[in-house]
Specification:
- The complex is a heterodimer.
- By secondary structure, chain A is of the alpha/beta class.
- Chain A has one domain: Spore Coat Polysaccharide Biosynthesis Protein SpsA, Chain A, CATH 3.90.550.10.
- Chain A has eleven helices and twelve strands.
- In chain A, strand 3, helix 4 and strand 4 form a beta-alpha-beta unit.
- Chain A is globular and about 65 Å long.
- Chain A starts with a helix and ends with a helix.
- By secondary structure, chain B is α+β, with helices and mostly antiparallel strands.
- Chain B folds into two domains: 265 residues, Zn peptidases (Aminopeptidase, 3-Layer(aba) Sandwich), CATH 3.40.630; 111 residues, 2-Layer Sandwich (Alpha-Beta Plaits).
- Chain B is built from eleven helices and 17 strands.
- The radius of gyration of chain B is 23 Å and the shape is globular.
- The mean pLDDT of chain B is 92.
- Classes of the chains: A alpha/beta, B alpha+beta.
């Protein structure tokens, strides 16, 4: 265990950044161009017309026109009922319905599905994923994540975390993720993948990844996609393949405890599947896929059943259309 | 900076040629939508209440540096500057927007961008004005415009309320460069053309009563009631029809809860008149009204005057006004001649010809759902560029 602590300490020292470390965008662009890298931004959406316009405007102006860091901005939508795609398209994003990408495959719906299909649809050597519900969106959400990949060849996967205290004193302050991270994921990682606890916010929806890594990992299409990624990339490449960047504050919608419960249920399914496949844990029976939550109406308690089944897509490299499009032998 | 597809605008030539180029200017500026809106968002989401504009102006100055302006600075009043050097550099044109807004730091400054509108606190007054200033270097670069005069771009601080345009006053008092003309940019309304400042006196009346319960004045011991008495007295002050004059009772606060006597109350007001002596006369009357109510009620009343403007400005027939009028006409917008009490007064004190213009249309000013319309913004900015070209070309000089 001492080795784990030392590894984590070394990794935190060497692979944890703050976005301000990468303020010099001209230098970043120069390094990107020297390596001939292309970078795609994927914004997965479902009914995000309130926030998507600002996100596209900022990234287009600052990271395409002013500093050409991004080679494409794509919005991949799960079938919004509002004007998400129209707004995004107005401001110059490439817009796609997830169901229109690889249409011959069985239809599935979920954020992970959009992220997975982005690997096929987008052309970048690096794909950076940014959620659409961020109220205080800023270019740092992209350059802070892609910069470690541009500057360090050995880094393959960069995760965001958010840590912006109002004041810093000499005393110790807790730092970590949200409720689901601290109550579920970090304890699970501590039990079975202790080195992954170094990732401060394993569930954050913002990360940048090299294509050659993305194409080799399966994608849960629901809640479990981020957790599953971390386990798979860690198992193949070790902790050294990760970096994390503090992007300061992230303002977004808060979720109810019930919603977080549903999320935790999906995450557990993905985790157990992964850990089971790797013989880290042994699951002896098939999972129940119904989560029951309860509500009270006067004196009577009612059960609410939520069917949550963490379906999964195979590694993209196994899809013949992908192999053909990207000339993978 | 990424290379941009530039178009060429004739900077030398007649005023008529500048007017003829307005449609092309508008078209070219509309192609820069994302740049302008990004500036609007990046600046607008940084809170900038009066006296706390430093962070927003740092962002402005960073923008100037990013587009390659070599001469950028902030001064001791937190004003932000960027200078676009002209080919001849003999004179200076000062284009400014006030950086401050009426919203506190605690207000959620998130802006929302839709295809036709941008909504959020301060977006019209005056983040759009500031975004116009921030975008001008990019716009002039895209249009391939090189001016003869130096163009000083400024985000001015401490403009509103008690700020009393302190930022601009400081700059003009200490600036060593001769200013040929001043253009004040407000987010809204496009079509506004202010060339005169009216006389103005701005202040606040504060009433305080003791916190102890006074049974002898059961039910009517309240700072709000006392302020109400002052308001009644103010309403009795006669106002002349000519010169046009008014007393604006613009702001009021008082009390803490439904069931508690108000121990403090405040009334914010502005006296306005086309005549400086009338402003003074109304000011004396208001002072008397406050003193009278204080003596009758025995309550503590304090009158604090913290901003004053002298009426003045340039004539309707001044070439700068004439050029701006014709440019608006070419934009198919009817000019609205509103007297101003803002930055324009600072220029008037120094006999510098100046105008205030608006960039777009918008509504719900100084409310959290304030918004600006995106589409009119392109013509509004084309108007601004055309006025700068007219000043630079010497078409606005008095003969």
């Amino acid at each position: 265990m001492e080795g784990t602590a030392m590894n984590i300490e070394k990794w935190l020292e060497e692979n944890t950044y703050h976005h301000s470390d990468f303020w010099d965008l001209k230098k970043l662009i120069q390094r990107k161009e020297e390596q001939g890298l292309t970078i795609s931004l994927c914004i997965p959406t479902l009914n995000e017309e309130e926030t998507i316009g600002k996100e596209v405007v900022l990234f287009k102006s600052e990271l395409v026109n002013r500093y050409p860091l991004l080679d494409e901005i794509a919005v991949i939508d799960s079938g919004s009922e509002d004007k998400t795609l129209e707004v995004a398209s107005t401001f110059g994003a490439d817009t796609y319905l997830a169901s229109d990408i690889l249409p011959d495959l069985e239809q599935k719906k979920g954020k992970g599905e959009n992220l997975w299909k982005a690997i096929y649809q987008l052309k970048g050597d690096i794909i950076v994923y940014v959620d659409a519900d961020i109220k205080n969106i800023h270019p740092r959400f992209v350059y802070g994540l892609v910069a470690p990949l541009i500057y360090r060849e050995e880094i393959k996967y960069v995760k965001a975390f958010y840590d912006r205290p109002l004041a810093v004193s000499d005393t110790v302050r807790p730092s970590g993720g949200g409720r689901v991270t601290e109550i579920l994921i970090r304890p699970l990682f501590s039990l079975f993948y202790p080195e992954l606890t170094a990732i401060i916010q394993p569930l954050s929806g913002e990360y940048a990844v090299r294509r050659d890594v993305l194409q080799e990992i399966p994608f849960p299409i629901g809640y479990g996609v981020e957790t599953s990624h971390l386990i798979d990339v860690y198992s193949k490449h070790g902790l050294g393949a990760f970096a994390q960047t503090d992007l300061d504050k992230r303002v977004h919608r808060n979720q109810s405890t019930q919603a977080l419960g549903r999320m935790a249920f999906g995450l557990l399914q993905s985790f157990l599947t992964r850990a089971g496949d790797q013989n880290v844990v042994e699951v002896k029976q098939a999972y129940n896929t119904i989560l029951r939550q309860f509500q009270a109406r006067k004196e009577k308690y009612e059960q609410l059943e939520h069917e949550i089944h963490e379906d999964e897509r195979p590694p993209m490299i196994d899809i013949p259309e992908y192999r053909k499009k990207f000339n993978v032998d | 900076m990424a290379p941009s597809k530039n178009m060429s605008i004739k900077t030398a030539g007649t005023f008529e040629q500048i007017q003829e180029q307005l449609p092309a200017l508008t078209e070219a500026i509309s192609e820069m939508r994302e740049t302008i809106l990004a500036n609007l968002v990046l600046l607008g989401e940084i809170p900038a209440p009066t006296f706390k504009e430093e962070r927003r102006n740092k962002m402005l100055v960073n923008r100037f540096s990013e587009v390659g302006l070599l001469n950028t600075a902030m001064d001791e009043k937190d004003n932000g500057f960027g200078v676009l050097e002209g080919s001849e550099g003999e004179g200076n044109i000062l284009v400014l927007a006030h950086t401050d807004t009426v919203f506190s730091e605690k207000t959620d400054h998130t802006l929302s961008v839709k295809p036709d509108v941008v909504t959020g606190p301060g977006v019209a007054d005056n983040t759009l004005g500031l975004a116009a200033i921030a975008s001008l270097p990019d716009i002039l670069n895209k249009l391939d415009i090189e001016l003869k005069n130096d163009l000083i771009l400024m985000g001015s601080t401490k403009s509103l309320g008690r700020g009393d345009i302190e930022g601009l006053r400081f700059f003009l008092a200490n600036n060593e460069h001769p200013i040929k003309a001043g253009i004040c940019v407000e987010g809204v309304q496009f079509g506004r053309l202010s060339h005169m400042s009216i006389g103005m006196l701005r202040g606040e009346i504060v009433c305080r009563i003791p916190a102890e319960y006074d049974w002898t004045s059961f039910g009517d011991s309240s700072a709000i009631l006392t302020i109400n008495e002052v308001i009644n007295k103010i309403n009795d002050i006669p106002l002349p029809k000519r010169p046009r004059s008014s007393i604006v009772l613009g702001k009021m606060e008082g009390g803490a809860d439904f069931n508690k006597r108000a121990t403090t109350a405040k009334l914010g007001f502005e006296i306005r008149s086309e005549s400086g002596s009338v402003v003074d006369e109304i000011g004396y009357r208001l002072e008397e009204a406050v003193a009278e109510v204080a003596s009758k009620t025995g309550d503590y009343l304090n009158l604090d005057i913290f901003a004053k403007r002298q009426p003045g400005g340039i004539e309707f027939s001044h070439p700068l006004v004439r050029c701006a009028r014709q440019i608006l006409k070419e934009c198919e917008v009817n000019p609205r001649y509103e007297p101003s009490t803002s930055e324009l007064s600072g220029f008037i004190d120094y006999d510098i010809p100046a105008l205030t213009v608006g960039v777009s249309s918008g509504k719900n000013l100084q409310m959290e759902d304030e918004f600006i319309n995106i589409d009119p913004m392109y013509k509004g900015l084309a108007q601004l560029v055309a006025i700068i070209l007219a000043v630079d070309g010497g078409h606005c000089n008095e003969h």
